[in-house]
Amino acid sequence: MPNVIANGIEIEYDTFGDLSSPPLLLIAGTRAQLISWPDPLCDQLAKQGLYVIRYDNRDVGLSSKIDYAAAPNMLEVLASRERGEDAKIPYTLDDMAEDAIGLLDALNFEKAHVFGISIGGMIGQIMAIRYPSRVSTLISMMCGTAGASIGAVKPEVASIGMIPPPEDRDGYVEHNVRFFHVLAGSKIPLDDQLTRQVAQQSYDRCYYPEGWARQQIAVLTAWDRTQALKSVTVPTLVILGSEDPVIPVEDGRAVAEAVPGAELLIIEGLGHGLQFPEVWPIWVDAVAAHTRKAGS
Questions:
Q1: Which of 29, 143, 233, 249 has the greatest number of beta carbons closer than 10 A?
Q2: Using N-to-C axis directions, what is the helix angle for 39-46 and 280-295, rounded to 10°?
Q3: Within its chain, how far is the Cα of 19 from the centroid?
Q4: pLDDT tens digits for 223-249?
Q5: Residue 263: enclosing H or E segment and its boundaries?
Q6: How many CB atoms lie within 10 A of CB 110?
Q7: What residues pair up with 6 in beta bridges, in sequence order?
Q8: Which pLDDT tens digit goes with each residue over 143-172?
Q9: Among 83, 108, 121, 66, which residue's Cα sits nearest to residue 237?
């Protein structure tokens, strides 16, 4: 896969589709490498007349590791925020948004449709707020308006999410399968084979838990974007799962309510994640319709 220097770091990426088609930038969630966007899903999006770009965020996969910045103690950071003090953190979601803009620069794209999931949706929101001329449309999936949840994250999610994954390959894979089962909803089944495959490929490609911890700090200390989203003029589609245990529906609704004219798509029985092939046609059709409408 190719890589470029963007925003002062190295970013690994790959593409699907025709270079002459409108670009669609896919931004992955916390801990997730670019391969978390499965190849068949990317192919389906490309067949809708989009040039699909997926990439590794900083600190995961084959992009630069911010190893000169040790991950601060998460509890100490949160305690500092409770006291109203500024906590020193390695980087912010704004820095990660600048990485995405830098990638577009390096690839010579003036603007792109932006499709982000979870932390990727937060990064996409910041791009639409701070760099509206670079965003053709925004698809914000499975994320809210701030680092802290408006609704209640399920305890079992918080519990397993804080456990460092095992260092051995088999243990890592089984941990990920258990984790994504916790994130899945009741009506739309998780694809176990795909989940296991992505976990195996991710481990073989790059096992780097230090980066995940730094990304999580960036999420937990993210600023509340509610007011800023009210000024967004970029056509926006918000996609939610009705049974998402990480981002409760009210969190996602807050995004749709803040952005003027935003469309809202809630998928009944869906949890959190990308390993749900049954839902891919719904996402693909919605993204295709949204991007075409903006183009017209």
A1: 143
A2: 30
A3: 23
A4: 999 999 999 999 999 999 999 999 989
A5: strand 263-267
A6: 10
A7: 9
A8: 999 865 655 556 666 666 667 789 999 999
A9: 121
